[in-house]
Automatic annotation (TrEMBL):
Chain segments carrying region Disordered: 708-728
Keyword Hydrolase found: yes
Keywords attached to this entry: Hydrolase
Protein's name according to its UniProt entry: Magnesium or manganese-dependent protein phosphatase
PPM-type phosphatase domain sequence ranges: 318-559
Domain of life: Bacteria
Entries under Gene3D superfamilies matching the protein: 3.30.450.40, Histidine kinase-like ATPase, C-terminal domain (3.30.565.10), PAS domain (3.30.450.20), PPM-type phosphatase domain (3.60.40.10)
InterPro entries, per the entry: Bact_Sigma-Reg, GAF, GAF-like_dom_sf, HATPase_C_sf, HATPase_dom, PPM-type-like_dom_sf, PPM-type_phosphatase-like_dom
């Protein structure tokens, strides 16, 4: 008997569907099943498509792709409709697909499906629109939940909670690969320890998960008998769980098998094409989710390791001082970037505080940061002064740039840095700066000043750059803040507005009466970070936060003595003297403008803005005269004392010249000679005090504007130094 006659006898038709040519060939029985005359025919794809329910036909491509990936038959149930769209019958198609240049070629059978009998499970009934809709909704929910999972544990929890339409596994296991052996990444529906016999199996073991990983093809075992027949050696391991059906699917990501997924069922499952399609889709999403989680966990582990190796723990036991530090990474992939801080014991018994920022937020920036930090530590430990430490570090980074530029074509990277050598006994600070933001000092009365310091180019740009040193004194009760620009400029701020924001936080910090100096400083560090970046999410060296634009590093140094804590409203019970010292060298006339800014910062809460303008004008005159008519530098000292509303400011400008100024009468067109006239008009009190090594010109202003005194102190009759118009 011919094959065609045999198939016709069992009501089975043959068809061939060539997707490339768009032609479908049907034998007589296949044509009859599609509602056509019972004779062989060749039709267009469109003509055949009109005989299938549109919802069912849309699934053909997915079924074919599934069969190709598994190396199995393409099976589907299809509803046959007439010209009016009424369902005539349901047929089952089984075909062997081939993919050629992206098009498929099907050769298979069509057979009518009998009406379902009472008691048949939903998994075995013909496909309906409701089942498809529930399946699509399930896959959308599963995809969304797996995409949001951030860790392997979360992925496994999501997988365990998936409610598949029509069939639900009661046990899951995810297998990974460690060398040539299986590992159990996680499981659900089993007791702790149940995974031990399966973990460590070689990939050559006759076990379904091992075979799936070897071949990359899914294995479906609908009955215990099938499992026992195909895998007799490992069947006893599975038998004790008393399940009736199993599906083992490969976890494939980027074309590579990374593991296997086992779904075990307590109820029999036939694994129809639609059920296999659901399982295959879930396996693909699960593989992608596990791969993403693995990458994130690897990056986090790398970040933690980098942080532990690169972010030192500050010393809490500096005599007479307290230090607090924070490092907050950016929102990029790695939890470490180019910012760093360090604290280095020096051979002299002093302490070096270092803070810096390597350009970039990538792995290379983190690597350069580590190299630069080690180099700075080495140079500092050799006993070099701050300027020499930065000069050597700049040459070191420039050498790395030159090597990488020749070898790999990498772009040149630079780094900003602030190096502070601290004498804990005296509070003396020797500061060298390489393109980094200046330090800020919160004085004993709670006022914050940004202290300008001399500096050079960022490290790595010019290996011959000099880095002058600035000397400051951290008085008892004062706190120094040094940070990277991420703390200042986050949120669209520039340096000016960023420092203004930090001033409000710094001055408004309210140390509780129960807090020690160290506790207060730690809380201040948290407050600064949280105010700029939002609430903390977890801690590393300090709090990591959720909204991050740039890396930040922060160091706070507080000197004991006086009153370190600020009371309500930033005021102390007894207001100490607010004092600042600022020097202007002969070779740095541009610092006159900085002296004016520094005085405005000291007077930022002064009641009368006109008095502030007057003080700034007089300081400009005094410092300019020193630079123009002496051979030495100008040293400015400003002190504010008294209670708010009745305070006094005294400003002294000292120089090394013994010649005293005298009053002049400049004409209308004169460009100088008005300095003492301005002092007499604007100051509440003023004078010139001779000193052993020069003189000091001073003035006073009173906040209540009522306590006006006569000018005091000797005023010389010598010639007054000319004052250019630009000085005013």
């Amino acid at each position: 008997m011919r094959t065609e006659d045999l198939l016709a006898a069992i009501a089975t038709g043959l068809w061939r569907w060539d997707n490339a040519s768009g032609r479908v060939t049907l034998d007589a029985e296949a044509a009859r099943l599609l509602g056509l005359p019972a004779e062989p025919v060749e039709l267009t794809e469109a003509a055949v498509r009109s005989r299938f329910h549109p919802v069912d036909f849309a699934e053909i491509n997915g079924v074919v792709q599934l069969a190709v990936s598994e190396g199995t038959l393409a099976e589907a149930r299809l509803r046959i409709v007439d010209e009016r769209g009424r369902v005539l019958r349901i047929v089952r198609t089984r075909s062997r697909p081939r993919i050629v240049n992206g098009d498929f070629d099907l050769v298979g059978t069509l057979q009518e499906v009998p009406e379902p009998q009472p008691g048949t499970s939903a998994a075995h009934t013909p496909i309906t629109g409701d089942w498809r809709r529930s399946r699509e909704a399930f896959l959308l929910d599963a995809g969304r939940a797996l995409a949001e999972a951030r860790s392997t544990a979360e992925v496994l929890r999501v997988a365990a909670g998936l409610s598949m339409p029509g069939f639900m596994p009661d046990g899951l296991a995810v297998f990974g690969i460690e060398g040539d052996r299986l590992s159990v990444i996680g499981h659900h529906g089993h007791r702790p320890g149940d995974e031990r016999p399966f973990s460590g199996m070689t990939l050559e073991t006759e076990y379904p998960a091992a075979e799936v990983i070897r071949t990359g093809r899914a294995i479906y075992l609908p009955t215990p008998e099938e499992y026992r027949r195909r895998y007799p050696s490992t069947w006893p391991l599975a038998a004790r769980f008393r399940r009736t059906s199993w599906a083992f699917l490969p976890l494939v990501n980027a074309g590579r098998t990374i593991g296997a997924w086992m779904a075990g069922f307590a109820q029999p499952v036939a694994f129809t094409p639609d059920e296999r399609s659901v399982l295959t889709t879930v396996a693909r999403m699960l593989a992608q989710a596990l791969a993403r989680a693995g990458v994130q966990e690897s990056q986090h582990e790398l970040a933690v390791g980098l942080q532990r190796s690169m972010m030192p723990t500050v010393q809490p036991d500096i005599p007479g001082m307290t230090v607090a530090a924070r490092y907050v990474p950016t929102g990029g992939g790695l939890e470490v970037g180019g910012d760093w801080y360090d604290m280095i014991p020096l051979p002299s018994g002093r302490i070096a505080l270092v803070i810096g920022d390597v350009q970039g937020h990538d792995v290379r920036a983190a690597g350069l940061m580590g190299q630069l930090r080690i180099a700075l530590r080495a140079y500092a430990s050799e006993g070099h002064h701050p300027d020499a430490v930065l000069s050597r570090a700049s040459r070191f980074l420039a050498g790395i740039n030159e090597t990488e530029l020749r070898g790999h074509g990498e772009d040149q990277r630079f780094a900003t840095c602030l190096y502070v050598e601290v004498d804990p006994a005296t509070g003396l600070l020797d500061i060298a700066r390489a393109g980094h933001p200046d330090p800020a000092i919160r004085m004993a009365d709670g006022t914050m000043l940004v202290r300008p310091t001399a500096g050079g180019l960022p490290l790595g740009i010019d290996p011959d750059t000099d880095y002058p040193t600035t000397r400051l004194v951290l008085e008892p009760g004062e706190t120094m803040l040094v940070c990277t620009d991420g703390l200042i400029e986050t949120g669209g701020h520039d340096l000016e507005t960023g420092w203004a924001r930090l001033r409000d936080i710094f001055e408004g910090h309210d140390a509780g009466a129960e807090e020690t100096g160290g506790e207060s400083l730690e809380r201040l560090a948290d407050t600064l970070v949280q105010a700029v970046h939002g609430p903390s999410s977890h801690h590393t060296t300090g709090p990591l936060v959720d909204r991050r634009e740039d890396d930040i590093a922060v160091l706070l140094l507080s000197r004991h003595g006086g009153s370190c804590g600020v009371g309500t409203g930033g005021r102390l019970a007894q207001q100490p003297v607010r004092r600042t010292v600022f020097s202007v060298a002969q070779a740095e006339p541009e610092r006159i403008a900085e002296a004016r800014r520094q005085l405005r910062a000291v007077l930022h809460d002064w009641a009368d803005p006109d008095q502030v303008d007057s003080a700034v004008l007089m300081v400009s005159e005094m410092v300019t005269n020193v630079l123009m008519h002496t051979d030495g530098d100008a040293l400015l000292v400003a002190e504010i004392s008294g209670e708010r509303g009745g305070r006094r400011i005294r400003v002294d400008v000292a120089d090394g010249s013994d010649e005293l100024p005298h009053r002049r009468r400049p004409g209308e067109l004169a460009s100088s000679g008005r300095g003492l006239v301005l002092m007499e008009l604007l100051a509440a009190a003023w004078g010139v005090d001779p000193r052993g090594d020069g003189k000091s010109t001073w003035f006073e202003l009173y906040e209540d504007a009522g306590a006006v005194a006569e000018p005091s102190g000797p005023v010389s009759s010598g010639p007054e130094e000319p004052v250019p118009e630009s000085a005013a």
